[in-house]
Design a protein that fits this description.
It comes from Euzebya pacifica. Helix 1 packs across helix 7 (298-312). The protein is of the alpha/beta class and 410 residues long. It has 3 domains: 6-113 and 242-312, FAD/NAD(P)-binding domain (3-Layer(bba) Sandwich), CATH 3.50.50; 116-238, 3-Layer(bba) Sandwich (FAD/NAD(P)-binding domain), CATH 3.50.50.60; 331-409, Enolase-like, domain 1, CATH 3.30.390. Strand 1, helix 1 (14-25) and strand 2 (31-36) form a beta-alpha-beta unit. It is 25% helix and 28% strand. The termini are far apart. The strands form 7 sheets. It has a 5-stranded parallel sheet. Bound molecules: flavin-adenine dinucleotide. The site of flavin-adenine dinucleotide (FAD) has 37 residues, from helix 1, strand 2, helix 7 and strand 22. Flavin-adenine dinucleotide is lined by residues 10-16, 35-38, 45-46, 48-49, 82-83, 109-112, 130-131, 157, 245, 248, 279-281, 296-299, 301, 325-327.
Length: 410
Amino acid sequence: MTASPTHVIVGAGLAGANAARALREEGFDGRIVLIGDEADLPYDRPPLSKQYLRGETSPDDIRVLDADGWSQLDVDLVLGAAVTSVDIDGRHVTFGNGTTVGWDRLLLATGAEPRALPVRGGDLPGVHLLRRLADADRLRAALQRADRIVVVGAGWLGSEVAASARQMGVQVSLVEMGSVPLARTLGERVGSIYRDLHASNGVALHMRASVTAILGDRRATGVQLHDGTVLPADLVVVGVGVRPRAQLASRVGLAVGNGNGIEVDAELQTSAPGIYAAGDVASAWHPVLNRRLRVEHWANAIHQGRVAAANMLGANRPYDRQPYFFSDQYDLGMELTGHPDPAMEVVFRGDPSDGAFMAFWLADGRVSAAMNANIWDVTDTLRELVESGRPIASERLADPSEPLDALVSS
Ligand SMILES: Cc1cc2nc3c(=O)[nH]c(=O)nc-3n(C[C@H](O)[C@H](O)[C@H](O)COP(=O)(O)OP(=O)(O)OC[C@H]3O[C@@H](n4cnc5c(N)ncnc54)[C@H](O)[C@@H]3O)c2cc1C
């Protein structure tokens, strides 16, 4: 490394922004260049399908830091500019206009982008994808004019948008290929809690249904399903998953796993020494789960960004956190710790119909994942429970009179 090194971060989302902050907190006093192709100061994405979409918060409320904060950290923010190539041997990145910035350590935190719906009409005006602040602004304005909408995909994003649209007084049809919302993550039993939640809030659910076309000449006017059903709509929101933005990395020959993100080791270093990746784009070796994991969650982006920053400074810190996710839909807030598999046995503590409960996903009698819904301040204990890897009888998990702490310690 040179006497006054420069560390460059490509991608000014949550992972990139938190890495920049962490570099300073870890004592780095060289130059930090944080590059993002969005014009906005780095912001939190989760509110874009929740409070921000409903117009309850402003852009300033969701910034990671304001402009003063960034200048106090002495971070060179280069916004509204895309990096188009990385030169590994020459140790620089290049922008579209040919300008270059040299780096001593490089972090790729380029995130993910939403998948479009590959059907006729999938690109008509009035079909919305949601990833960026500007997408949320456009969608909010359109929702304010809409009477009825169709949301395609009942994963987290689609389910949250459906809930927000109902809260804004719009009629919603929710279309999903699975049997219940969130089935691919949570499985049938927990997913059916979300099915009932949406139904009781007036959403028309179309499960086990696929979209064959988005109808309309000059703009979307409805959605056609596989069985010929037509769902009229003033607008359509597509939430059918994201793909990691790994093109920069694959173009220069970094290991990129089968379309599933930039491969990094447990210390978040790519196949090229000195280049790291973090957040939605990183397919990281998880030293506890003993396999690669690419996680599309807020907490993962923050914590991986921080660990990558420490390792850019030589800390050699493994990233071994269990995944953590949260979601808010109507009056149901939940946190999910660990990695559920829809095929696992699920044990409930409390009655889901009461609105406050926990759910545990078990593999070989051990808790692989735990959800707390409308029960708060238990995440640390649930994380310990998941991390302990100890066998626990289902009866004890289900028994509300047994303190959670006791499950961790005995
Ligand atoms: C609407 C919405 C709601 C969500 N809700 C939740 C939630 O409730 N709970 C939860 O845990 N998670 C949620 N998430 C997921 C969470 O926000 C993401 O996991 C997180 O934002 C990932 O951060 P990241 O920094 O890895 O990627 P991103 O936030 O995608 O940031 C990457 C940035 O890099 C930029 N970029 C890409 N390529 C280049 C390039 N070549 N040059 C310059 N810049 C580039 C991108 O434009 C982007 O700004 C939600 C996501 C969305 C979209």
